[in-house]
Every structure is written in structure tokens, then in C-alpha cells.
Amino acid sequence: MSGARLPAALLVLVLGCAGLAGCSAGEDPEPAGPAVQRSEVVRVPQDAATIGEALESVAEDGLVLVGPGTYPEQVLVEVAGVTIRGTDRNDVVVTGEGRRTSGIVVIADGVTVENLTVTSTTLYGVLFTGVHEGREVLTPGQDGYESFDPARFPPLERFRIDHVTATNNGLYGIYAFNTRHGVIVDSWASGSADSGIYVGQCRECDTVVSGNVATRNAVGFENANASDSLTIVGNRFSGNRVGMTLTSNYQEAFVPQRGNLVAGNVVTDNSEQRSPSQADGGWGIGVGIGGGQDNRLVRNLVAGNLRAGVLLDSVEDVPSTGNTLQGNAFRRNGVDVANASSELTPAAGNCVTRSAGLSALPPTLLDSCTAPAQPAATVADLPGGQAPAGISFLEVPLPGDLPSLEAGDGVPAPLPATVAHPDLAQVRVPAATLLADLG
């Protein structure tokens, strides 16, 4: 259930960057010269023609205020504490023009990106990452990440992504990797051939994903090896091929994935044909748990998913264990809860609160919470048939205008050291219409 990964063991994201308009990532640093006088607020295009140029003159904890326009840039953010704010979410557009790898890449602590659109990149719309060597941003490849050294690559600390529209990006719309103490809120992601929103490779993540819409992606929301204090609450993951996944993945550090709270989300109708294909052929699945452990799914609406509402599976030698499903509303799924784990890596300790009409595959799954190995079917046994062919990420329909922030020119306070998580006691099963009026 994990998404596509890049073939090189360590791929520099800025390959092919040289010579492209607005490309500011990975260039050789200029020779040392006189100290630059940096400003607390830099306006684009009034004070600087591009976002990249504005970052060269903004102070730490300052503000880059971006006016309406289309910005064909690949922006690297290495100024700590800076806020990049569009004046209008719909009219401030950073574009990769279908040829640049990324839109906005952040490698500094305490950065906020808000109230703008990032589109048409070949890999990443907005990427926050703690894995980089200088200005070279690195990503794990197919040979695994066993040599990952946390001391060498400490996590990026404190980030905020707010009212960002990420559309038609080649792999990921919004991507937080090796990060902690962050918020992804009130954003939109569509047209991603891997996942619309991705949080990966962190322990004690202290991250909240809330109020977002992910639709018409291969996977709406994906978690690979992001564990502990990660709260996914009040989102709409609807109209994708797979609504959301919680997975363990040996291509990244910190296996196994564990300990997320998934509450009050709408995970519905994930069998959208006008979307890019999912790398593993995923289709018609609401929530896929692949080697995920000790996650809590509480009071979500999981409905209309053609094959399965929640699918448990194993990943290599990592079983899905100890996951609890409590108080969720299941409706109109091919089957509500299914287990397709391998015989060699059986699921165990996954407990589902019974409700009227709840269906399971195998049917005895609901009675096996305390069994050392829970009964399993196969993916081929699921109803709903095979996935149809996908479309290019660049062909996915765009959303309409989306709500903007009131974009003043005030410099915000620095981001807090820790994140406030929602109170689970206040979370209810959402209405099917949650966030449906957007786009």
C-alpha cells in the first residue's frame, strides 16, 4: 500500500535544475561578500521580483509577502523562522510548469508556508525535510535506509503549512519528511501520483493534520514510519484511489509505523477513476494499514469504498498488530473491515468495536481480537474488481477557488516548540458533508 519511491539510493532533488527559470535549489553558493542587509518584511514583486530573491534579503523570523501572479520557480527555503505568505491563495501560484522537480522545499526550522498554490511539479509541491547535506536535499531509494544516521540528519523542527493548495504534482502534494512539531491545516491536495499529503520518517512526531481535503490522488493521505503523537483529525479523504494509509516501509528509517490517532475524518468513495494509478494497484480502499501497529481509529466516517473500508495487511516481515477501531461509522463499503495479511506475517491483536451490520472478511475476523494469529483472506477475495487505468497527474481536474486567509503584512510570532493536539473527547463522527463544499 506504500507509494512509488525513487530509484536512486540517494537522489538529489535538484538534478536537472540548472538553467531553469526561478530555480534556486542546489546552486553553488556565491563567493563570500559583504553582509546582506536583511529586512523583516520583503514584498514580491515590489521589493524582489521572485520568491527566491526575496529569501535572499529577508531576516530570520521575517515575512515574505507574495502578491498575485504566477511564479515559475523552484524555491529553496533555508532562512529559519521565515513565513512565506501569499496575499491570495488562488492568485499566488508557484508552478513547476511540468518540468521542475519541486515548488517550495524547506530545510530550515520554524518555517511557515501559507495562503498560496503550488502546482505542476514533477515530484513535490511543498516539501519540508530534515534530510539534506547543505543545500542538497536527499531522499531514500529502493535499497533501503538502514544506514540513516539521526545525528547526521536531525529532524526539521517546527513547521506550519496552512491554506496551501497543492495540485497536479508528480508524486506528492504536501510532504513532511524527517520533521517534528508541525501542523498541516486547512489545505487541499489533488492530482498526486503517490499521495496528496504525506508524513514520513519521524519518532515523537508531535504533528497535527487537520481540516484538509485530499481528493483525486493515488492516495489521499500517506504515513510511512511516522509514529507517536501524530494526530489526523477532521480531514476529508474522499474520491481518491485509496483514502489513507498507515504503513511500515523499509525504504525509510524507523520501522515499524505505530501509534497514530485517526479521528473524526471522512474517508469516503475512494474509487475515483480520474486519478493517477497507485503504484501497488491500490483501489477502492478507505484506510489501508500495512504493517501499522498500535494505531487508534476513532469515530471516523468510512463509507462508499468500493472494495474495503479498512484493510489490514502485512509488509515484508512487519505485521499489522494492536490497531483498534472504535466508534467508527461504516456504510456502503464492499466490506467494512478485511484482513489480507500473509500467513508468514499474520495480523494479531487488531480489535474492532462491533456495530449493527458491520461486515468483515473473513467473517471470523471480528471474533479474533485476542487470537495469536487472526484469520486472513487475500486481496483477490475483496469485492469491487480491479483498478482501472489511471490518468496523468497533469490531467487531473483542478479545484475551484478555495478559501483564503486574511493576508495582512504583520510578521507572525515564532512557531511554538510543541503543537496543541485536538481533544479526542470533543471529536464526533462527522457528517458526510464535512468540507465537501470546497472546490
Describe this structure in words.
Helices cover about 0% and strands about 35% of the residues. A hairpin with a 2-residue loop joins strand 10 and strand 11. It contains 1 helix and 33 strands. The protein has one helix spanning about 50-55; strands at about 40-45, 60-65, 70, 75, 85, 90-95, 100-105, 110-120, 125-130, 130-135, 135, 155-165, 170-175, 180-185, 190, 195-200, 205-210, 215, 220-225, 230-235, 235-240, 240-245, 260-265, 265-270, 285-290, 295-300, 300-305, 310-315, 325, 330, 335-340, 350, 360. It is globular, with a radius of gyration of 21 Å. It has a domain at about 1-25 and about 40-250 and about 395-439. With about 450 residues, the protein is mostly beta strands. Mean pLDDT is about 90; it is low at about 1-30. It has a 20-stranded parallel beta sheet that branches. An 11-stranded parallel beta sheet has the order 4-7-9-13-16-19-22-25-28-31-33. A two-stranded antiparallel ribbon has the order 10-11.
Low-confidence stretches: 1-28
The total count of helices amounts to: 1
Helix content: under 10%
Structural category is: mainly beta
Largest sheet: 20 strands, parallel
Instruction: Give the beta-strand count.
Output: 33
**Amino-to-carboxy terminus distance:** 27 Å
Strand content: 35-45%
Choose one word for the global shape: globular
State Rg. 21 Å
User: If you average the pLDDT, what whole number results?
Assistant: 91
Domain Periplasmic copper-binding protein NosD beta helix: 80-276
Signal peptide: 1-21
Protein name: Periplasmic copper-binding protein NosD beta helix domain-containing protein
Keywords: Signal
